[in-house]
Amino acid sequence: MRIMITGIPSYLMRTVDSVSGAAVKHRPYFENVRTKKDVIDQVKKIANTGNYLIGEGAANSVRGHDVTYVPFWHLANSLNSPETYERLNESFDLCLFASANLLRPGYAAMTESYVFERLNMPIVVMGIGIQKKENLKNELPEGTHRFLNVLKKKEAFFLTRGHFTAEFLKAEGMKYVRPTGCPSLYYAPDAMKRSLSRLADPELAESQKIAFGGYLGSVPDTIVDAHALLHKDSTASYVIQDEVIVYNMNMVGDETTEVYDQAASRITAPTEYKHAEKWQRKRDYLVFFDTHKWRSWVSGQDFCFGRRFHGSIIGMQSGIPALMIAVDDRMREMLDFVGFPHIEASVWNREPQKKAYLQDFLSKIDVPAAIHRYSACEANFNAALKDIGIR
């Protein structure tokens, strides 16, 4: 089958040089990332580096087909070009749209509605989810309602991140809706199970090589976590995903200042952000524009711990035990669906003896049940792909 993937991309989008009609030209190299402007520009292209895992997982799910990634910006820029859409409709049998928390008050999917209106092929919306549950229908922008109405009239398949999104879409009249979880969950299933098998170990709370993820620049929660778990002479390794564009994490210097070591994927410039003065540990800031480099680095850590879903999933894809702190509805939906052990932020944040609490929590994890639940989710995902005819 000839499949066009669009929407959230894998890191290979960084090699796209140009697009004409249905043909995509790639460079045989990645752009260098060294300066402050380079880092910010690369993060802006993906909005959040964790999104690369979504696009990668979606592409991996159809790897047995004739697959082309067509950047969504090309589809949007070609809305007034009937010739381009004629070529696209001739060249592909199915469109796979990789998405995330598209159903949210702050985002209007009007452009998506116009794009899909012009595509004459089945459309699979993979990984769609919500940002918050409360009053969702009434707060959705008109553009998103139009997006749903366009797809309601087409041969469209919705694979959602969880049950709440599935029930919402069914109530909106969508014909094929199946909760499957984020596609990143199934990129490396054997490693995911290996990660789960290593999680019920209280000694992980004593780890000093921890991959932290959170929202530095917004709240100091990760600083508190690092102080609770790391020795005074240890270094906190923090993975940046979108902080430099969303949470005012500033790399000191002008646009041309060299701030990034590509070989180490490490920020080398001093950083400034809200609450940074609270740190009492040395720290490294890392940012990855290549998921393989990210997995390679995280495979050298002992534990992943934090408030970022994909910052933990990348560790699990490497077989490293990971425990997430659930901070919002989108994260809870994904965690509740797949059944991964996790801690509620409201509980963890007020716990005075964090290390002891973590040790006790880890000791009580039912590993066989977690692996069984994950295996059932993997089988469900593959069954959905088979239903659609792409597995």
UniProtKB/TrEMBL annotation:
Keywords: Transferase. Residues 48-328 form the Polysaccharide pyruvyl transferase domain. It comes from the Bacteria. GO terms for molecular function: transferase activity. Pfam families: PS_pyruv_trans. This is Polysaccharide pyruvyl transferase. It comes from Phyllobacterium sophorae. The lineage of its organism: Bacteria, Pseudomonadati, Pseudomonadota, Alphaproteobacteria, Hyphomicrobiales.
